[in-house]
Amino acid sequence: MTSDRSICDLTATELARAIARREVSSRQAVEAHLARMASLDSRLAAFVTVDADGARRAAQMCDAASAPMGPLHGVPIAVKDLTDTAGLATTYGSLLFGDHVPAEDDLVVARLRRAGAVILGKTNTPEFGFGAVCTNRLCGPTRNPFDPALTSGGSSGGSAVAVASGMVPLAHGTDFGGSVRTPASFCGVASIRPTPGRIASPRRPLGWDMLATHGFLARGVDDLELALSVCAGDDANDPLSLGSTDDDRPVPDRARIAVTPDFGVAPVAREARARFAAACQAFARVADVVPSSPDCGGAIEAFRTLRAAHIANAYGELLRTRRAELTPTVIWNIEAGANLSVQDYLDAERRRTAIYRSFRQLFNRADFLVAPAASVLPWPNEIADVTAIDGAALETPIDYLAVTFIVSLVGFPVLTVPVPRGENVLPFGMQIVAPPGCESRLFAFGRVLENELGFSHRRPPL
């Protein structure tokens, strides 16, 4: 009989296989993970809501089925609390929605359920996903499992901690400017931000908005590929998703890798640069490495403008009617777009287009582009924002995310993997970027990094 502890140490892929073979029941898997949550989450605050009864009912249905319902049959997972779950509280990290229970699942959740996944609960996020520390007036701060005094990162910090600590093997996240990649780097797990449209979002108010995507966090690349495989697909109400397909051409025996510590413009701390440079030395064993970067001049200003405009459009009414109930971080984010002009917006889109084309040109001579997954290492939870890097003041509270949001700006898929590290050294991650539609190639190369170079998760000392 597999022990509860070993069940929690299985990857989602391994657990799905064990459940399908009836070596482990879904109910056993659920109970083991609920027990892990009960022992750890009072310290880590990864979950806003735990649905133990619902998970047990779903597990019972899985165990009663004559055949697996899908590739995630019976596997416990978590969903970020920005995404609607039918019959299960979805607060968006805000007191304004503390009692909100959606009537319908978001499409990505519906697809996870159809694949047989069992949702254990909703993971913590800053209010509406805006914040460098994963905390809000309902829950948090979500604490880093490698050092609980430090941040888990925003805004999918709850999902990253749940995965890193073994409370679930797989968790859903969302990523606007780095919200799966930064927590993945801080917590030593892997993540995928797919090509916008790969996972359809038919409820998105601005159908052609490609800045934010769904994503996943896991302890290994195979689990990310599995999760994306069951959630990918188009929907007639999402114009970005139509025609979105995977380019499954094989990775060359010896890939060509362009390497950049900062895209030429992003502020990156000396310590992060040193960790990145040390990790890049290992690439020579499996790839041909060429220091190179697309021309990203103006990328920071373009992203600031587009992000501010979208946030003001989405949340401006809340600011007008419920300002006193919003956190200062949310207020700043909404107000940042208050005075933008049409010309400001179009200038940002023009610059974005030029940067996109520069990325495309880079991939004519490289298979992958590699960059740090975070500009800094985790900092104390008591510090709400990164206002300076190596003593140099940042112009805005989001500029520390430039090394990730530049990739969001152009909409290229990106895999994050943890780099090898010594004992008592905080985790640090690396972004592997590929052209749109090349997720399969990312996963294939990610497995090379895991298996041949040791770019893989190591359990925290809990």
Can you give keywords for this protein?
eleven-stranded mixed β-sheet; alpha/beta; 14 helices; 462 residues
The termini sit apart by: 24 Å
Q: Largest sheet, order of strands side by side?
A: 1-3-2-6-8-7-14-15-11-9-10
List low-pLDDT spans: none
Output the helix-strand order.
HHHEHEHEEEHEHEEHEHEHHHEEEHEEH
Describe the structure in brief.
By secondary structure, this protein is an alpha/beta fold. It has 14 helices and 15 strands.
Question: Please, could you describe this protein's structure?
Answer:
The chain is α/β, with parallel strands linked by helices and about 450 residues long. Helix content is about 35%, strand content about 15%. It has helices spanning about 5-10, 10-20, 25-45, 50-65, 105-115, 155-165, 180-185, 220-230, 270-280, 300-320, 330-335, 340-360, 400-410, 440-455; strands spanning about 45-50, 75-80, 120-125, 145, 145-150, 170-175, 190-195, 215-220, 255-260, 285-290, 370, 390, 390-395, 415-420, 430-435. Strands 1-3-2-6-8-7-14-15-11-9-10 form an eleven-stranded mixed β-sheet, with helices on both faces. The longest helix is centred in the last third of the chain and has 24 residues, at about 300-320. It is globular, with a radius of gyration of 21 Å. About 55% of the residues are buried. The model has no long low-confidence stretch (mean pLDDT about 95).
